[in-house]
Amino acid sequence: MTARADLYVIARLDIGDAAVDVYCCEVYFNQAVDGTLCGRTSASWSRTLQLGPDVSADLDGLDRAMAAARYFRTSSWRVRVTASGAVRYFADATAGLRSAVDGPVASARDAPA
């Protein structure tokens, strides 16, 4: 069984430090109107993907590094400049999570007391 995780990624292409920071989050959609994205929870940091020396330090290289780690962008990169003047790239992403269990997953209320 495979579940999907909603992620938020923030990338940097600084000289000598090109990487993607991956954050777990929960995404909210406007179900009452048209199902569009209307926000996400505060994200918690999950991991950082460093680019290898053989990967180009550009947005395509970041996409390849993410795909190699089984993360996939679901929106285009959005560029922002931070208060300190650093350029960062933001995008929504997803990842497949394999369950270690076959069959239905028991909820906490089903666990023995």
Structure description:
This protein is mostly beta strands and 113 residues long. It has one domain (2-99). Helix content is 9%, strand content 48%. It has one helix and eight strands; from the N terminus they run βββββαβββ. Strands 1, 2, 5, 6, 7 and 8 form a six-stranded antiparallel β-sheet that branches. A two-stranded antiparallel ribbon has the order 3-4. The longest helix is centred in the middle third of the chain and has 10 residues, at 59-68. The chain is globular and about 45 Å long. Mean pLDDT is 75; it is low at 99-113.
**Order of SSEs:** EEEEEHEEE
* Individual helix count: 1
End-to-end C-alpha gap: 27 Å
Any low-confidence stretches, pLDDT <50, length ≥5? Answer: 99-113
Radius of gyration: 17 Å
**Main sheet specs:** 6 strands, antiparallel
Number of strands: 8
Number of self-contained structural domains = 1
If you average the pLDDT, what whole number results?
75
Structural class: mainly beta
**What is the percentage of strand-forming residues?**
over 45%
Residue share in helix = under 10%
Shape: globular
